[in-house]
Structure formats: C-alpha cells, structure tokens
Description:
By secondary structure, this protein is mainly α. It folds into two domains: 1-80, no CATH class; 82-122, no CATH class. Helices cover 46% and strands 7% of the residues. The protein contains five helices and four strands. The protein binds zinc ion (ZN).
Amino acid sequence: MDDLIEFLNARYADEERIANAAAAFPYDFPGDSPWERARATANIINGKLRAMAPHEMVAVFADPARVLADIAAKRAILARHDAVDDSLHYVYCAWCSTPSAGAYQPWPCPDLRDLAQPYASHPDFLEQWRVAVS
Ligand SMILES: [Zn+2]
C-alpha cells in the first residue's frame, strides 16, 4: 500500500468499525458506557464544577460520537488534499498548490503526512511519510 490516502482511509475505517461497535455494545444500563460515566463525574458538586481527572478525560475522548465526528473531519481534509497528476507526470496536492501561479506542492503534502503520524507504528506505514521531528 503506497497511497497515503488509501492508508489513512483504511485506518479511519478501522476506527469507525470500533466506534460503531462500542456504540452498539449492550451496556448493563443506559449511561453505563465508559465515556458516559466519565462525563457524569464532571458534575456539579456543591455548586462547583468538578474538574475531570486525565483518565476520565481519555474516556470522554473515546465517545463513539466524538470519534466518528473526528473521522468525518479527517476524511474532509483528505478529500481536499487529493493528488493531481498532470500530463507531465508531476503529482501535486490539489489543495496546497496554486497552478495558476506556478506553485506546486508535491503530493503527499505536509498536511497529509501530518495526519499519518499517529499511525507511524502501523506495519503498512511507509518511512517516506514520516515527518522529521525538529
Ligand atoms: Zn495538501
């Protein structure tokens, strides 16, 4: 797999399947999911909002609705940064390039490569996608 958009779409499809399975899981009673229990602890105690502990915040981040919204946003970014292969076999980013000004950003552009970094340990991740840490 050498197409970065194909690679990212496969990761997002994996995460989407997991989020949908978590949302459909038959918890013992309504509100018993980890993200709902964590959110419930961020309640008001004696008139003050109780801050959430980091482990509670992580559970809220796993809320399937949030995960699915995040995936939708990333797919929109992927759609904007699609590859354009011109007649000279030069491949550039549709979003980051300005052909009318003669400015071309080679594809995959830095934005796409940034999106791939959370998956750098995946066996299909290619070293050419790695972003150098400065
Ligand atoms: Zn781009």
